[in-house]
Amino acid sequence: MTDYNSKATIQRKVAANLLKYIVEAARHLPSLPPGQCVRILENACSHGVNSVDFALAVCQAVSDRDTSAPISFTFNDLPDNDFDGVLALISSSAVADFNPTLHTLGKSMYSPLMEPGAVDLVYSNASLHWIGSLSVFAEEGPSQPKVANQAQEDFAAYVSSRHQELRQGGKLVVSFPGVPDGESGMNSCYPDAFKRVHDIAAERGAASLAWMQKYCNSPNYSRNRSEVASAFSDADWTVDLMELQDIEEFGASEYQEGRITLDDIATRTADMLSSIYHNTFTSMWVEYGGLEKDQAEELMKVYREALQQALKEPKTLRVYHLWVIVATKK
């Protein structure tokens, strides 16, 4: 838990950007009868690095409206997530002063999670670009159409399920990587870096170039405007905000002030990606790539070194494209 929470640098920056939208949504939820619980769902809470700030802000916004309103949080992620760590972080923070009820739910966010009309506010940070099924990376390997189709199925299922689970007037607030129209959604945040990682790992003899190209791609997809908008057009939503924003690389301000170098940023980013992809990649390499567990772990070490080298080669700061969406159930 500590490793991920300390290295999820980009996720923390995205979360800081999302926080104000979550607070605004919490402030404008429909009024509830006295004593009725305000129910919150966080999708893809991961190890809780951002859950504390989100939950604290929501508690304060709800309390500002009604100090007696009970609050309930459900923290959702995949079944193998460290939910004990999430609850420990929340319970030891200022969130505990509001005495909320805490629940966890280990299940894919692309599936139904709650009873219809059971939730007032849903939010998710830097997660909806992840592919729900890694089978698209099996057999002949990933392709733009195949991954795009899976990503569309995932997103449509997410939006539809959350619409059913929100009560009338409930809010959905999400942020995730996107791309401008006309750009590829595969490996979109680091397209050149992944290509170089393939080459470097093959040059070191860790795996063949063809194997790396097939099994070492970012397991996510960044959607363009039409791909995002289509999921909301089929449901009864009011879309309050759908904006593709630019966000500078984590550490950009420190670099501009001369306190760190571009190589420092590359090392941070490599640590972050290696931490995030570790379980996904090693599992995928064992299940689909024919490696034993110890072989996958050894390759992951080479991957991290290759990624760090690849990220240091372009001497420039990156800018990420980020969807911010706020929608209300009609």
Automatic annotation (TrEMBL):
Q: Which UniProt keywords apply?
A: Magnesium, Metal-binding
UniProt-listed InterPro entries = MeTrfase_7, MeTrfase_capping, SAM-dependent_MTases_sf
Among Gene3D superfamilies, the record links this protein to: Methyltransferase, alpha-helical capping domain, Vaccinia Virus protein VP39
What domain of life does the UniProt record list for this protein's source? Answer: Eukaryota
Single GO MF descriptor: metal ion binding
Q: Does the keyword Metal-binding apply?
A: yes
Task: Please give the name of this protein.
Answer: S-adenosyl-L-methionine-dependent methyltransferase
Q: Which organism is it from?
A: Mortierella hygrophila
